[in-house]
């Protein structure tokens, strides 16, 4: 099915990685008191998105692969909440984060559907 050589060739991973980098840059400006709180949680959830896409990439069993994509999507939704929380706390946020959240979500859905349809499940 995949015509890619590494997970780095996947557009969904590329956009997820871009999201991680933006989260890291944005959270550098969060208050110091958040280092072990929101900053850490936000970064870990963001990294989890790209990491689970990468980890699932080489899984042979499509159900296992879909499970990793599901975890990535769950982490994406966790980040969606952290964006809301950051705004509500008055921390500076980057408007591009919402765009990337939506884009990565669409790409994860499309990639998951393509894998599922190739294996006759829905």
From TrEMBL:
Q: Source organism lineage?
A: Bacteria, Pseudomonadati, Bacteroidota, Chitinophagia, Chitinophagales
Source organism's superkingdom?
A: Bacteria
NCBIfam families attached to this UniProt entry:
four helix bundle protein
| Protein's name in the database | Four helix bundle protein
């Amino acid at each position: 099915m995949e015509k890619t050589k590494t997970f780095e060739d996947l557009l969904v991973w590329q956009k997820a990685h871009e999201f991680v980098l933006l989260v890291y840059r944005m959270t550098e400006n969060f208050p110091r008191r958040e280092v072990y709180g929101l900053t850490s949680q936000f970064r870990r959830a963001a990294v989890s998105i790209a990491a689970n896409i990468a980890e699932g990439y080489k899984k042979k069993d499509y159900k296992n692969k879909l499970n990793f994509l599901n975890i990535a999507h769950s982490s994406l939704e966790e980040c969606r909440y952290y964006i809301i929380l950051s705004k509500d706390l008055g921390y500076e946020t980057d408007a591009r984060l919402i765009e990337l959240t939506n884009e990565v979500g669409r790409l994860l859905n499309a990639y998951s559907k393509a894998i599922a349809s190739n294996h006759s499940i829905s």
